[in-house]
Amino acid sequence: MKMNPRGMYAIYRFEIARAARTWLQSVVSPVVTTSLYFVVFGAAIGSRVEQVQGIPYGAFIVPGLIMLMLLTQSVTNASFGIFFPRFTGNIYEVLSAPVSYLEVVIGYVGAAATKSLILGLIILITAHLFVDLPIQHPFLMLFFLVLTAITFSLFGFIVGIWAQDFEQLQIVPLLLIIPLTFLGGTFYSLDVLPEFWQTVSLFNPVVYLVSGFRWSFFEVSDVPILVSLGMTFLFMLLCLALVWWIFRTGYRLKS
Amino acid sequence: MAPILTVKNLDKTYESGFQALKDINLNIEKGEIFALLGPNGAGKTTLISIICGIVNSTGGSVTVDGYDIVRDYRHTRSRIGLVPQELTRDAFETVWATVNFSRTLFGKPRDDAYLEKVLRDLSLWDKRNNQLRTLSGGMKRRLLIAKALSHEPSVLFLDEPTAGVDVELRQGMWETVEYLRETGVTVILTTHYIEEAELMADRIGVINQGEIILVENKRQLMKKLGQKQLVLQLREPLSSVPAGLAAYSLSLGDNGESLIYTYQTQSAQTGIDSLLQDLGEAGIRFTDLHTTQSSLEDIFLDLVNG
Lengths: 255, 306
Ligand SMILES: Nc1ncnc2c1ncn2[C@@H]1O[C@H](COP(=O)(O)OP(=O)(O)O)[C@@H](O)[C@H]1O
Ligand SMILES: [Mg+2]
Hints:
The complex is a heterodimer. By secondary structure, chain A is mostly helical. Chain A has one domain (5-249). Chain A is 76% helix and 2% strand. Chain A has helices spanning 5-21, 23-45, 57-88, 91-95, 101-130, 138-162, 166-182, 195-201, 205-218, 225-249; strands at 51-52, 55-56. In chain A, a hairpin with a 2-residue loop joins strand 1 (51-52) and strand 2. The longest helix of chain A has 32 residues, at 57-88. In chain B, 33% of the residues lie in helices and 28% in strands. Chain B has helices spanning 44-52, 73-79, 95-105, 112-121, 137-149, 167-183, 194-200, 218-225, 272-282, 296-304, and strands spanning 5-13, 19-28, 33-37, 59-64, 67-68, 80-83, 155-159, 186-191, 203-208, 211-217, 227-234, 250-253, 258-264, 286-293. Chain B has a 6-stranded mixed beta sheet with strand order 6-7-8-3-9-10, sandwiched between helices. In chain B, strand 7, helix 6 and strand 8 form a beta-alpha-beta unit. The interface between A and B is medium-sized, with 30 and 33 residues. The site of adenosine-5'-diphosphate (ADP) has 12 residues of chain B, from helix 1.
């Protein structure tokens, strides 16, 4: 046996089935939450702030909101996927199976990315119901979605291996991802900030995601699109390196 | 025939600096039932975990069917089924989904007929649509066995299969092991219940403080180290062993109602002849007598205490 695609697929399928089992929580709830954002922010604020960078406010916030959901869902999903078997003790099975680390990662991260990607698309379609939404570069937009879903699922996988209990598992999305997204230009353009905070924002990786993603819709952005792409890749490489290190050292998986 | 499992000079020192295994050497033959017997903390789980790929060794090597567990891990792991010591915590998937998952995770194509047979053999077929969290403790343990068997392993590890299991279920586990023997699977089980090793295994390895003290065919082990006891029911109770009989290893039982003589079955002279003669001369009469074989428990205590 050179490779074990069946084993990889078993993990993938198991994770997808988990979402199907809990579809209310994993599909309906994020869609409803995001729709509420559309309504509350888009309608309430949008009636006062007409346009940002020449885009109607209601439409302006859509890419950021999709990113917010994509990031939190990717991290939550991927981290839970690997944390739960660690918690139940079932991880022994994956560790003792003839699957390579790469296959394990592809199974778990692939499934999490698939799920958040599907969610992202559902929300994109939902957004069309609320606002008039042009997409200038649909392929780039999709590419960004896929790249972000994979990158943050990788990040979630790392969180799920690092976390020692459920509290730590929830801390990262709550105390890291959501603030970074809110401060990452989801609801505003960076040039409304004082210069100092603009500079600080450039250390926030989410800024590059939101900016690049928004550019694929409206061709307006806070940072050049290539910089956005570059930074996203950089973050993905960082996560990959960490995952590689985890398996090399057996960190929190093997003694 | 080449052994199916070979452990050579295996060492394990945990990161804490604790050495859990010291130079372990072991060969397991195809088709046998091998019991690894040792007290808590002896290193049984560590040894199994290394062979299965859950823990990294710090020295030595292990081969399964000629394949190295590190270099050829896909070969070795696909041949091994593991039933862990700890029951896993509750999960939400169904029995059927989980055995299917186990099978495909190990790279085997779906085979519903085979999985049905496994579930039926382990009396879990009726529960196939139940979520795991609805199963009782005994069923969970059997499900872990079903999961381990789902990919048709040739070697099965049962880590303390009856720990925390009540008497009735323990009986069931013994029957399960018997059933495994018939299917031709090599079974390596750990236990700290000596009766269990005695009951189920063909060969027994005794492990203590990370070292294998001995490996022996069960019968030979019993014979080699067996002590017997001769129990004499006394006509009149004694308050102490008469001084004249101090040369014999005697003790009183049943509040002095019986006299117990311990002797080595292997020694040329058991001393029974002369004991009976000396008893007669001392005027000690008895109404009945029988002998008992020492259990592995006693043997084990002897071994561990040097
Ligand atoms: N991850 C670990 N780190 C440090 N010591 C460990 C670890 N796991 C087990 N040990 C120690 O190794 C010894 C052997 O443990 P184990 O193999 O579980 O024994 P057994 O299964 O025979 O009861 C014990 O003293 C235990 O405390
Ligand atoms: Mg143990």
